[in-house]
Amino acid sequence: MAAEPADAVFAALADPTRRRLIERLARDPTATASGLAAGLPISRQAISKHLATLANARLVRRERVGRETRYSLDAAPLADASRWIARVGGEWDERLAGLERALERRRA
Length: 108
Hints:
Blueprint lengths: L6 H7 L2 H12 L3 E2 H5 L6 H13 L3 E6 L2 E6 L2 H32 L1
Antiparallel strand pairs: 1-3, 2-3
Helix pairs in contact: 1-4
């Protein structure tokens, strides 16, 4: 079974720390890992692992600038996940509307 393109995005976003990192990157488009870790109650090593997971989901890009690695948000995979949610939600909307029509016919 082939994986949906959004699978890695949903897996990455399942963790609250990674969601916080995404929010911080949305505010600071070229942050360092140390800058992202500031104020979070986890180690720098844990931040690096979370950033690697986000990078594997293609939500984060890494760029080496001198001795630092800068991270930036890539929102395109979020748009892919959003389209998946809209498609599945639309299918359920259609099913529920069909059920409602069938119940109305039965009542009449």
